[in-house]
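FAQ

Q: What does a record look like?
A: Structure on top, sequence underneath. For example:
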């Protein structure tokens, strides 16, 4: 698991390998990840949008941007957490993801960016 704290918001990411399958005559590697966003600050915050950069070992890069996470724009009270799971497909057995969330502080109405730490994606048998 990787973790990073930005302005009182702790982001933790745990990954898993979900398997392989063929799509459009190409081998696809499926990975899952669970993100926990913990408000360690004193103010109520809301996650507004996300920005992901997904890279694989073949130098393919995909950028994903959008509102919220899995259809939600969670409001996170001080001392509380929001957790969600999602996934991605790679054309190689290795890759990485990183990014950020755009959030707003309800007390100051200030928008700010929370970094998502870079994390590795790897198919277990490819490690040998």
């Amino acid at each position: 698991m990787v973790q990073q704290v930005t302005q009182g918001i702790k982001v933790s990411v745990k990954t898993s390998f979900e398997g392989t399958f063929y799509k459009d005559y190409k081998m696809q590697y499926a990975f899952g990840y669970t993100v926990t966003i913990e408000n360690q600050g004193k103010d109520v915050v809301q996650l507004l949008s996300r920005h992901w950069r997904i890279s694989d070992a073949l130098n393919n890069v995909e950028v994903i941007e959008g509102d919220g996470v899995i259809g939600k724009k969670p409001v996170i009270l001080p001392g509380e957490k929001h957790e969600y799971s999602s996934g991605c497909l790679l054309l190689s057995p290795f890759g990485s993801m990183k990014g950020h969330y755009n959030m707003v502080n309800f007390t100051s109405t200030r928008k700010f960016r929370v970094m998502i730490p870079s994390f590795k994606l790897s198919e277990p048998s490819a490690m040998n």
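Q: Is there anything notable about this one?
A: The chain is about 0% helix and 70% strand.
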